[in-house]
Each structure stands twice: as C-alpha cells, then as structure tokens.
Amino acid sequence: MAPPEMTARIESKLARKRELFSLGGAGQVREAISSKAAGYLAFYKELSKSFHQIGSVFPSSKSLASVMIRPLEIIQGPRRILEVGPGTGPFTVEILRSMRSEDQLTICEINSALLKQLRSSLESNQDFLEHRSRVTFIEGPVQQLRAGAAETQFDIIVCGLPFSIFKPEVAEEIMKLFHDLLAPSGHLTFFEYWGFRDIFTFINTPANRRRMRAVDRVIQKWQGVAASEGAVSSKVCLTNFPPAKSLDFCFRP
Ligand SMILES: C[S@@+](CC[C@H](N)C(=O)[O-])C[C@H]1O[C@@H](n2cnc3c(N)ncnc32)[C@H](O)[C@@H]1O
Fold first, then answer.
1. Cα 181 to middle of ligand 1, angstroms
2. Which of 59, 114, 157, 227 has its CA at a distance of 20 to 30 angstroms from the CA of residue 40?
3. pTM of the model
4. Which tens digits make up the pLDDT trace of 85-117?
5. What is the CATH number of domain 51-250?
C-alpha cells in the first residue's frame, strides 16, 4: 500500500474511533457493553435453572456465528429465516447484520427470561431496528410449529439447540420437523461441541452413554437423508470455546 493511502486509512480509522468516543459514541459503546453484560447475566441465571434446555456453559462466539450463517451467502432472493434457540443472541446479531430488506426472520426460544433479555438488547441494535417489521418472535418450544403453512416454510434454519442433551425421540421429532419446515433447497445449520461426545461418552453413566449414542444415530440418519436428497457440509470452528463443529444439511434440492 502506498504511504498516502496508508495515512488516509489510518486517519479514517482514527476519525472513526474519535467519533465512537465522542459523547454520543461513548454512550453507544457503554450501552453495547452493558447489554452484553446483561445478556451474560441472564444466561448464567437461566443456566442454573434450565441446564436441561440450555445445554452449554458459554454463549457461542462471533466466529461460530459467522460459520452458522453461511447459508445466507448461498441462498439468493428473499430469504425466510428461522432461528431456533437464540439464547443471548450471538447468531441473531450476525443474521440481522446479513439480512436484506426483503428477508424475514422468525426467532423461536423456549426460555422466556432469555427471550425477554434478547428482545431488550436488540432495541439498541441498528440492524434490528432496520428490519424489525420483518422479525417475529415466538416464545415456546420449536416443536409447536406446524409444517405445511406458508408462514412456517423457511429457506434457512439456524439452530442453536443442544441435541446432545436431548432424548433421542426429541432429537428425532425436531430433526423431522426441520426437514418438513424447509422449502426445497433449504438449509439447516446446527452445531455440536467438537470432541464433546467422545469425552462425555467416556466419563458418563452407562444410561447417558446409551442416550448419547442414540442421539448420534438420529443425527447420522438425518445426515444420510440430506446426503441423499441434497448435500452435507461441515466446518470446525476452533476459535469458539469450546471448539465446535457446524453442520449444514441441504434437503430436497
Ligand atoms: C446451547 S443454547 C444456544 C444459545 C445460542 N444460540 C448460542 O449459541 O450461544 C440453546 C438454546 O436453545 C433453547 N432451547 C432449548 N430447547 C428449545 C426448544 N425445544 N425450542 C426452542 N428453544 C429451545 C435454550 O433455551 C437455549 O437458549
């Protein structure tokens, strides 16, 4: 890069920093920090009561969120997006950032305190404010959605559900539902902690080990369905804590 270009770039970065820390900007930074802190607080408060639903001890990172929303780069045209299990909203924020003016987002969360906290934190998110008329919130289990209606057909499902702590029959019910809710060539992304199953299979009780193997068979089965109908891809995200693997199933091309 030529020195004048470099200087211009540094100057523009400095101007941006000055703008942020000017009176209004500092307020925005403070608001963003306190909203993040409130998110963490709500997450850990709910974790102690609802580990059977949350199934994770850390909210996901921005890097995992970027991997999870890759189908938004693949699918062109107006996208109907369903996010399931947003928690404190790490994926929501990235989905909103990538949304265009004709896209629609439905957010489904079972935990009312987490959903309340998410909705309140989004009030200071510029992308949300831009798209809010096309964002719908559903409080309750995703299993309450019924496939077959126009308003419950989606092009992309971004799923944050902790399948590894579910009973196999619940995992099967949800996977089948996702398959049926997706429009042709729709994408489902979900993640699992990398190596989690091996470690926990090793240290778990025999009953839990059997349950986890059964959940694994459910995921394998739907992976087979996606492979025969469309495509399967995966990506490991080492910069998440714990490292995670995101899976992308494309059904019925
Ligand atoms: C592992 S946390 C993931 C949160 C966030 N997506 C992240 O990655 O940090 C799982 C989330 O799914 C929600 N959840 C669990 N079961 C659900 C269900 N049946 N329907 C909708 N949300 C559910 C939990 O309340 C929790 O917020």
1. 18
2. 157
3. 0.87
4. 999 999 999 999 999 999 999 999 999 999 999
5. 3.40.50.150
